[in-house]
Amino acid sequence: MANHPRLSSTAIISHQYRAPATHPIDLIIIKERTRGDNFTVTDINNNVIFTVKSPLVTIVTPRQHRFLYDANRNSILHLRRSLLAADDKWKAYRGESEEPNDLVFTRERSSLMQLRTKLNVFLANNSAQVCDFTVKASLSQLTWKVYLGNSDNLVAQIEKQRGTMFSREKYMVSVAPNMDYAFIVALVVTFD
């Protein structure tokens, strides 16, 4: 994966979640077998790095919510999507907020009519309306690649492993050096 100068000075969620400058970081995101969409994120040594919790969607709140927590259960991000909209747009806010000034990024489909899924990601401070990151899925929807803007500078690779009766669905994630891995995890848990 290519290192890009813009990444070395940018922490999307926080500097503490930036992968080391010397090597990529590998993570495993496991979808739990519970009600709702809950995930556990571990490193390759099986240490819990993050958890993602999703309350059940109700008629009163026709929105899907996912909350990203660190290993100490501190709230990092609130991911929110309206179930009434057809655009598959997710918004990420700091902590558990939904306030516009706490917006971190927006993730949306580049087009509703797609043979292959392509997602555009806009950081909150983006006024140019040119995406900051692009996510492209394979035809099988089992692999994704995250690129810086519309370039071919790869910042993360994700491979989905389907679950069976005896194993849970999981994502194998490799994050480029200097890239914010909490941001990549937040993107992955919005793929379903």
| CATH T-level topology | Porin
Counting structural domains, the number is: 1
**Spans of 5+ residues with little confidence (pLDDT < 50)?**
1-9
The spatial strand order of the largest sheet comes to 1-2-3-4-5-6-7-8-9-10-11-12
> For this structure, what is the CATH class?
Mainly Beta
Task: Give, in order, the helices and strands.
Answer: HEEEEEEEEEEEEH
The share of residues in extended strands comes to: 35-45%
Mean pLDDT: 86
User: Architecture, CATH level 2?
Assistant: Beta Barrel
What does the overall shape look like? globular
Pfam families: LOR
Family: Belongs to the LOR family.
Task: Give a description of the structure.
This protein has 192 residues and is mostly beta strands. It has one domain: Porin (Beta Barrel). The chain is 6% helix and 40% strand. It has two helices and twelve strands. It has helices at 5-8, 181-188; strands at 25-31, 39-43, 48-53, 63-70, 75-82, 90-94, 103-109, 118-123, 133-137, 143-148, 154-161, 170-175. The protein has a twelve-stranded antiparallel β-barrel with strand order 1-2-3-4-5-6-7-8-9-10-11-12. A hairpin with a 4-residue loop joins strand 4 (63-70) and strand 5. The longest helix is centred in the C-terminal third of the chain and has 8 residues, at 181-188. The protein is globular. The two termini are 25 Å apart. Residues 1-9 have low confidence and may be disordered.
What is the topological layout?
Layout: H1 5-8, E1 25-31, E2 39-43, E3 48-53, E4 63-70, E5 75-82, E6 90-94, E7 103-109, E8 118-123, E9 133-137, E10 143-148, E11 154-161, E12 170-175, H2 181-188
Antiparallel strand pairs: 1-2, 1-12, 2-3, 3-4, 4-5, 5-6, 6-7, 7-8, 8-9, 9-10, 10-11, 11-12
Pfam family, one: LOR
Family: Belongs to the LOR family.
InterPro entries: LOR, LOR_sf, Tubby-like_C
